[in-house]
Amino acid sequence: MSIKAENLIWKIGTKTVIDGVSFEAEPGKLLGVLGPNGSGKTSLLRLLARLKRPHAGRVMLDGQELSSFRRRAIAQRVAFIEQHATTNANLKVIDVVKLGRFPHRSMLSGWTREDDTAVNEALERTGMSAKRDDAWHSLSGGEKQRTHVARALAQSPKELILDEPTNHLDVQHQINLLRLVSSLPMTSIMALHDLNHAAMYCDRLLVMQAGRIVASGAPEEVLTQRLLRDVFSVDAHVETSPHHARPHIQFVR
Ligand SMILES: Nc1ncnc2c1ncn2[C@@H]1O[C@H](COP(=O)(O)OP(=O)(O)OP(=O)(O)O)[C@@H](O)[C@H]1O
Ligand SMILES: [Mg+2]
């Protein structure tokens, strides 16, 4: 069951930003959230991570209403990498990643071997081990982004929510990150703009337009020439890639 959204509505002033969104993320799978700028992707992810409360509708985690969870219980299982994440500049990389363990620690227990293992694994998986002692402010944009991913992994979440996590990454690190996220055992929901990457790595896709879901399903069901024209206003050819058997989009010049 994992994450389910039921008829979510979220407004700012008189503007309805999320307008009746319902879907279910399959456990252990990677769900991609697509849509033009301003379509509501970030707003939806923030509702799922309880950074915002819906005006109507509800989010369910394993069949239980998210609003009934204590904040700490949510932090123990839901990790969220924000689109424009910020971090205290005085920390070292390792300290930032260690923050991911915070929800799991109690007043009584000290730093445990389990905490160490989670942090080291997270640094390793994101390719940040060699920079573990570097100062946060000395990192490049992409290294900062990978450190945020490492912090989320160190949190050992059951649900991982990522808002455009490949921003700032070079092509090698984009691919590494997408491979990593698609291979993780937890339920993951990721907003992204690169439609070919979404086709290659996501198990299912949702497409948002003006706060509503206008398409959902497997990549080959969703990424059609017609949808690209209607929702993204681009002309494109969609073929099945001979290399990975997923849709491959070639935009018309
Ligand atoms: N705090 C806010 N104040 C005012 N308007 C907001 C706020 N948050 C979101 N909006 C509006 O809600 C709409 C959806 O924004 P959102 O950030 O969810 O879009 P998005 O799909 O993530 O876009 P992008 O692809 O640019 O990241 C936009 O029109 C935005 O201006
Ligand atoms: Mg956004």
How would you portray this structure in words?
The chain is an alpha/beta fold and 253 residues long. The chain has a single domain, classed as Rossmann fold, CATH 3.40.50. It is 32% helix and 27% strand. The chain has nine helices and twelve strands. The protein has helices at 41-48, 71-77, 93-98, 113-125, 141-154, 171-183, 195-201, 219-222, 225-232, and strands spanning 3-12, 15-24, 30-34, 56-61, 64-65, 78-81, 159-163, 187-191, 204-209, 212-217, 236-240, 247-251. It is globular, with a radius of gyration of 18 Å. The N and C termini lie far apart (42 Å). The model has no long low-confidence stretch (mean pLDDT 94). It binds adenosine-5'-triphosphate and magnesium ion. Residues 12, 17, 35, 37-43, 83 line the site of adenosine-5'-triphosphate (ATP). Adenosine-5'-triphosphate binds at residues 12, 17, 35, 37-43, 83.
Offer a concise description of the structure:
This protein is an alpha/beta fold. It has helices spanning 41-48, 71-77, 93-98, 113-125, 141-154, 171-183, 195-201, 219-222, 225-232; strands spanning 3-12, 15-24, 30-34, 56-61, 64-65, 78-81, 159-163, 187-191, 204-209, 212-217, 236-240, 247-251.
Main structural class: alpha/beta
- Order of helical and strand elements: EEEHEEHEHHHEHEHEEHHEE
End-to-end Cα distance, whole Å, is 42 Å
Strand order of the largest sheet: 6-7-8-3-9-10
Biggest sheet record: 6 strands, mixed
CATH architecture call: 3-Layer(aba) Sandwich
Count of discrete alpha- or pi-helical segments spanning 4 or more residues:
9
| CATH fold-level name | Rossmann fold
Q: What is the C-alpha radius of gyration, as a whole number of Å?
A: 18 Å
Unreliable residue stretches? none
How many domains? The number is 1
Q: What fraction, in percent, of the residue positions are helical?
A: 25-40%
User: CATH homologous superfamily?
Assistant: P-loop containing nucleotide triphosphate hydrolases
- CATH class identity: Alpha Beta
Gross geometry: globular
Beta strand %: 25-35%
